[in-house]
Amino acid sequence: MKLAFLFPGQGSQKVSMLHSLPDHSAVGEVLQEASDVIGENIYNLDTAEALTSTVSVQLSLLIASVAVSKAFEAEGVRPDFVAGHSVGAFGAAVTCGAMDFADALKIVKLRGVLMEQAFPSGYGMGVISGLDAKSVCDMVEAIFSEENPVYSSNINAADQITISGSIPGINKVLDQASQGGARTAELLNVSVPSHCPLLNSVGDSLYDKLAHINIRSPVVLYASNRKARLIRNSEQIREDLAFNVSHPVRWYEISSLLCEYGTRLLIEMPSGNVLTNLNKKTLPGARSVSVDENGFENCFFLAKRFCS
Amino acid sequence: MQAAKQRSWNRRLEAKQKRIEKMKGITSNRIIPTHQIVEALETLIMPGDRVVLEGNNQKQASFLSAALAQADPKKLFNLHMIMSSISRPEHLDLFENGIADKVDFSYAGPQSLRMAQMLEDGKLAMGEIHTYVELYGRLFIDLIPSVALVAADKADSAGNLYTGPNTEETPTLVEAAGFSSGIVIAQVNELVDELPRVDIPGSWIDFVVVADQPYQLEPLFTRDPRHITDIQILQAMMVIRGIYGKHGVKSLNHGIGYNTAAIELLLPTYGESLGLKGKICKHWALNPHPTLIPAIESGWVESVHCFGGEVGMEKYVAARRDIFFTGHDGSLRSNRTLCQLAGQYAVDLFVGSSLQIDEAGNSSTVTRGRLAGFGGAPNMGHDPGGRRHSSQAWLDMMTDTNPLARGRKLVVQVVETFQNGNKPVFVESLDAVGAKKDIGLETAPVMIYGNDVTHIVTEEGIAYLYKTDSMEERRQAIAAIAGVTPIGLKHDVKKTEKLRREGLIALPEDLEIRRTDAKRSLLAAKNVEELVEWSEGLYEPPAKFRSW
Lengths: 308, 548
Description:
The structure holds 2 protein chains of 2 kinds.
Chain A: E1 2-7, H1 25-38, H2 54-74, E2 81-84, H3 88-95, H4 101-118, E3 123-129, H5 133-143, E4 150-157, E5 160-166, H6 167-179, E6 184-187, H7 200-210, E7 221-223, E8 230-231, H8 234-243, H9 251-260, E9 263-268, H10 274-282, E10 287-290, H11 291-294, H12 296-307
Chain B: H1 11-21, E1 31-32, H2 37-44, E2 50-53, E3 59-60, H3 62-69, E4 79-85, H4 89-96, E5 100-107, H5 112-120, E6 125-129, H6 132-138, E7 147-155, E8 161-162, H7 170-178, E9 183-191, E10 207-210, E11 216-217, H8 230-247, E12 251-254, H9 258-273, E13 283-285, H10 293-297, E14 303-305, H11 314-318, H12 336-346, E15 349-352, E16 356-357, E17 363-364, H13 377-380, H14 392-396, E18 410-414, E19 418-419, E20 423-424, H15 431-439, E21 455-457, E22 462-464, H16 471-480, H17 494-501, E23 505-506, H18 528-534
Parallel strand pairs in B: 1-10, 2-4, 2-7, 4-5, 5-6, 7-9, 9-10, 12-13, 12-15, 13-14, 15-18, 18-21
Antiparallel strand pairs in B: 3-11, 7-8, 16-17, 19-20, 21-22, 22-23
Pfam family, one (chain B): Mal_decarbox_Al
Protein name (chain B): Malonate decarboxylase alpha subunit
GO molecular function, one term (chain B): transferase activity
């Protein structure tokens, strides 16, 4: 039985998420290191006001997820695979030993700043449930215009697809999806059109920065967001960390692949349970739990029982 | 005349003897020490060998596959793997690690995404995708294995094997290698002094190794009646009355879906009320499905021959020896190859299900971006041109008076017009067509071809395709029962009456079935507990099916 650690992306953040982490010395050490590297008190990042900025959101997610994965490690629980969704990929990279936490903090902060600056208004993302990727792609291609660009982006489940681009373009696709049999089609509360070519320049800038960061071959396989492959090659991990911001996250394939590789327990790091809920639908043969919902102790117990 | 050159006619045997000679450092008899299995495989297998690895959809030679994946790729490389089912992660690790580079297989459902990715990434070279019988056949023709790695329950020190209820494909793989101077290595759960019975003689086996854990075995054919829906019950009623009863189907095979489980569970209730007992469903090519227990207990079933076993059914089978094939020890004897052949040639009817059906009745279970292969459905889901014996149901498929006319196998597809997630089953074009292009296959991976299909059943009704005499009529009959799918929407409802009159389609009311009667209360067993009761406590369901 194999164990995977999952690292959530934006949308999973919660107010006070860094204040409500499990009480463990390894968590305290990670929070302290984060404060030292960023040069500010990280307990200021998870207020309702601070979380309106994608910079705070992304940093909070990285810090919370790495803190808990280190707590597991300190207790002797190590995953066989790591997979992060979007910014979650950085927590995954740290946990599998490909990247130092301090480097991840710096890059993630830059990622947030670049994303915030890229599209100040009029852009965003939407999510469609009840249609498959091909149906959504066909709609998006028919509606796309230079003036109102829109792209299909993340494939979260077989029937849950996000779209990214200009608000008018997104709304047109959402309308058509609603009429075309979608269960739900709604605008997401994000102001950056992530995971589509509109963010190519952000990806390029991140790559320039990452080129000077030490990325190592990981000790366990890392799930690449862009290619939906489990990889060990440090150069491919570097590219994935840089360019996942401007490419669709193929989460549906990633989660299926983890199962094909023998994963039977998937533990989602804080915060939230978005990935766990997706997995429960996609992977009926595996156990999916989240630290936020099930508690650190229970997840630890399951990991010990499943994977010993 | 003297031959110009001396040549040996025993090269395969000499090569085998040379390899066995090298085993002296590892074992002096035929028992390989468990902890030396990797070293033994590196000794007995040579680069470039054709290796058949037992792994079907139930039983897996999991200890040997894991050991092979740990081999040193500097010593073992370029292996050509032959596997009926690619199911375990290490099956593909063999390619990832550079130990094997080519594969011929039949089913890859549990690894279908990684399989497609590795093909796309050039990490494995694909031979062909087969049906089970084809792959077994080629083991004796042009894919003769150098090495067979198989699994058994028990062995004795002479190498005799007991495979018990899960004999499955072991004898076929052993025969192909063992009688062509190949090397046969069997993993066993335990070594004993006396076997319950001998399933494979020791003289066919070269080496035995005791595995560190019992071989992997999946309870793949257990369907909990709790999940059967009213629509599946309606369809089951239509099948029993409008197909089995109408044509007098006495011998058949069922797939593993909930819709066929519903049919099995309606025989003692709805079937009985129609007075069909003894007239239909007497002889089966089928695994020991727990959902068949009520029909067996009610006296419907005369015989069942099995592809493989089913976890939890061991004691029940042993206590029903008139019905099942059993050894003198009492336990089931299954045989995948023979049961596939029986299901191909000797039964009157096959029922399957599908993810997609096109307007001509071609069906496919292909999902884009995945490569799952075929398994055994196409072996049974076609009209075998070599059949010569007749039966009532087979003759009932004759539609013309040509003096050379012959009967036909009944090939039935039971589907709901929409899958989960609002995906239409009836589509303009199968995803298999796109998959052919994506993966670079020579032919589109069609599971059952339309011209083999005699009946399609949906929640709307039955299309009697064997009666149609033109493609146009076939399309009309399919469209008439395709609901509001893209194909169904093309149907002109004015034609429905004509199709009903001519018997090309039947709606539930034409079969005197009231939709409101299709209720779960008709099921002979509504949950696993009741199956256990029917079996008089002999069926012992695996933990995951116990809710009490």
